[in-house]
Amino acid sequence: WLLTEALGRSAERAAVPPAVSSGVVGGIRALLEFKVGGGEAATLPDAMPELRDWALSYRNPPAPLRRPRTRPPAPGTARLVVHDHVDRIFGAVAAGVDAKGYPALALDDIVRGASASLTTFYQHFDNKEQAFLAAYDSAVAQADAAATPPFRWTKSWPQAVRAALEAYLSFWAAEPLWARIAMVDVLTVGAAALEHRRRALGLFEEILAPGVELQPGLGPNVVTAIGGGVHHLIREQIRRRGPEHLLQILPAATFLALAPFTGPDEAIAVANKGAPRSSSNTARRASGTRRGRRP
């Protein structure tokens, strides 16, 4: 709240979209959680100048964020793929968490839901926590797999970031049960999930690497904070409106990811791509930086 208030008092930052400010706060909170929970609290003083510069890099865009033209994907169109007993165990974990919540989920619920025996379960996992985290890792890996090709085969880096985020949000929107588990329910698992949640931001290391080359002062801590901020926006949208509406946060997520590296003009132009213009919006659009196709 204090950071959001401070940004609002600055004339050149007073018009930063509220969702973006919320993402910045969520990103800083995520980085602090990872650092403290991961035993890296001693590195926080060195990280603070970088985080300060990152937070202050968001300046007023020349136009407001616009709601994108999107339709919610049909549920299940992304369809997670595992195999055999593990597939059924993952499905039972998801159904059990959806019905009872992770803390109340019992091993018997998983075994019964998977139509499996305890012997079969223990051939793969030691306990419900291990099964949940394996299911979580599988869902995140498949979301990343959906986002990576659009990023790698879009020549303009800013447009590539938007394409990756669109595919990422589309995946979770099409798998609402798994979206809730991966973004909301995982928070109830506690310390055991912390490293898994941190690894889940690996996609952002790839899609933001060209931006770090452009702005070397913004390094790994900022990349983690941006990824954590995007996940914060996803989580809040799921809680407020439901996973099927995740594509509505695409402009805010795109601006959050791009603005520190490209500046607000280009970031807002890319973020609002394809969105309907209001009659009063006369802001100019910035062109994306063309980059070579990545392997």
Give a verbal description of the structure:
- The protein has 295 residues and is mainly α.
- Helices cover 62% and strands 0% of the residues.
- The protein has 15 helices and no strands.
- The protein has helices at residues 2-9, 18-37, 44-56, 84-100, 107-113, 118-124, 128-152, 157-174, 176-183, 194-199, 202-207, 209-214, 220-240, 250-262, 264-271.
- Helix 4 packs across helix 5 (107-113) and helix 7 (128-152) runs antiparallel to helix 8.
- The longest helix has 25 residues, at 128-152.
- The N and C termini lie far apart (42 Å).
- Residues 278-295 have low confidence and may be disordered.
Helix tally equals 15
The biggest sheet, with number of strands, parallel, antiparallel or mixed sense and barrel status, is: none
Structural class: mainly alpha
How many β-strands, per DSSP?
0
Please, what is the average pLDDT?
Answer: 87
Helix content: 55-70%
Whole-angstrom Rg: 20 Å
The separation of the N and C termini measures 42 Å
Encode the helix/strand succession as letters.
HHHHHHHHHHHHHHH
Low-confidence stretches: 278-295
User: Which percent band covers the strand fraction?
Assistant: under 5%
General shape: globular
